[in-house]
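Q: Please design a sequence for this.
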């Protein structure tokens, strides 16, 4: 809070706040580049938060989300009032009650880069090689794996090994150190790397919008309009103060749902069928619970505390395996038998909807473990909430 007050004073905004609104939760998530851990990155967005606080008259509770998996989960529960983030986070938010209002300047694009030493000349020629990726929840990885699947090259079977690293820069370093033959990275970082190390681009994905802004549709109408005006009609007096890199107000433009269509088509949706389990909808879950079935919420404890289906039992599925049909359950952690020792009792698994793999994996693990009456609520918490069924929790 002290930082926001200092920035507010520096911008000369404090006295200009319009009528007061309640506190707003502002979530800022960055792409997996090393800059997101820098003080400069935090200072830029602290300044933006202060500007928005003054423009709306609301206290801005600023959260930096460096774990995009968590940020994607939060879009499904309406955790934030206002979100700033990469295209796949905004695209996901749109499906769960958010509307896009603005985009900062630029575009994002992922590229597959081959080192000189690899001898690989084309993407098809990369079969059997080692691929280095940014984290699985990074936009570049999302785009790259989505396009590989579309071309019929599923990464797990196409490459001999797939390695994930914390940042784009580290994936490129793996290429430089000979730990991988191919790397995926943000185009700008990849071009800088190739200039210093050689190598060439095998494939480039289509472009996606740069950092976007979305608001929760349930937010007060007047507050939404002030947020929209703050981004799209900023006072010339303050544009120079917020003109640094990814928070430049000078180049902000309106954006619509259609601009995220490409990103949305690459979403990693779960399959629709699990052998040995029955898929059910919200109404069927209600009836099953009335007859004594246990509904297992496989989300995180934090999500459960925020809001959950009334009567659900928390058994988190700690997911490290890839979001694939043939996922490696040994990489995950799930205390199923300790929580539900009776394998004959009916059990329903749920999480955050069709894009959330935790309940899919949990139900699959249950079937493999010999549970006899397994149900999968694929729509999960979002479907339950949409149908205005009973919810418990702190929110």
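A: Design:
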């Amino acid at each position: 809070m002290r930082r926001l007050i200092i920035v507010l004073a520096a911008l000369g905004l404090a006295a200009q706040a319009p009528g007061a609104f309640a506190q707003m939760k502002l979530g800022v998530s960055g792409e997996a580049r090393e800059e997101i851990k820098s003080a400069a990155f935090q200072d830029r967005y602290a300044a933006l938060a202060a500007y928005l606080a003054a423009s709306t008259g609301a206290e801005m509770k600023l959260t930096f989300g460096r774990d995009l998996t968590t940020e994607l989960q939060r879009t499904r529960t309406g955790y934030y009032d206002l979100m700033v983030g990469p295209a796949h986070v905004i695209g996901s938010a749109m499906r769960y009650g958010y509307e896009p209002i603005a985009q900062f300047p630029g575009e994002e694009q992922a590229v597959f880069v081959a080192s000189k030493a690899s001898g690989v000349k084309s993407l098809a020629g990369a079969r059997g090689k080692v691929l280095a990726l940014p984290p699985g929840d990074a936009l570049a990885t999302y785009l790259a794996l989505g396009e590989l699947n579309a071309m019929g090259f599923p990464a797990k079977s196409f490459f001999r090994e797939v390695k994930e690293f914390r940042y784009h820069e580290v994936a490129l370093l793996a290429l430089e150190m000979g730990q991988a033959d191919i790397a995926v990275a943000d185009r700008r970082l990849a071009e800088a790397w190739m200039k210093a190390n050689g190598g060439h681009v095998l494939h480039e994905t289509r472009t996606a919008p740069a950092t976007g802004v979305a608001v929760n549709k349930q937010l007060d109408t007047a507050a939404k309009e002030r947020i929209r005006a703050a981004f799209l009609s900023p006072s010339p007096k303050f544009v120079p103060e917020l003109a640094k890199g990814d928070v430049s107000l000078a180049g902000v433009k309106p954006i619509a749902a259609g601009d995220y269509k490409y990103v949305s088509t690459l979403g990693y949706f779960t399959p629709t069928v699990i052998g040995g389990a029955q898929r059910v909808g919200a109404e069927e879950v209600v009836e099953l619970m009335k007859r004594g079935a246990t509904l297992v919420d496989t989300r995180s404890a934090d999500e459960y505390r925020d809001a959950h289906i009334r009567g659900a039992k928390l058994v988190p599925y700690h997911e490290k395996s890839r979001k694939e049909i043939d996922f490696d359950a040994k990489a995950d952690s799930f205390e199923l038998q300790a929580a539900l020792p009776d394998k004959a009792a009916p059990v329903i698994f749920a999480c955050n909807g069709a894009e959330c793999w935790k309940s899919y994996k949990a139900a699959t693990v249950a079937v493999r473990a010999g549970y006899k009456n397994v149900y999968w609520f694929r729509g999960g918490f979002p479907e339950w909430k949409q149908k205005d069924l009973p919810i418990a929790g702190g929110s």
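Q: Thanks. Anything notable?
A: The longest strand covers residues 24-29. The chain has three domains: 2-106+209-265, 110-204, 277-392.
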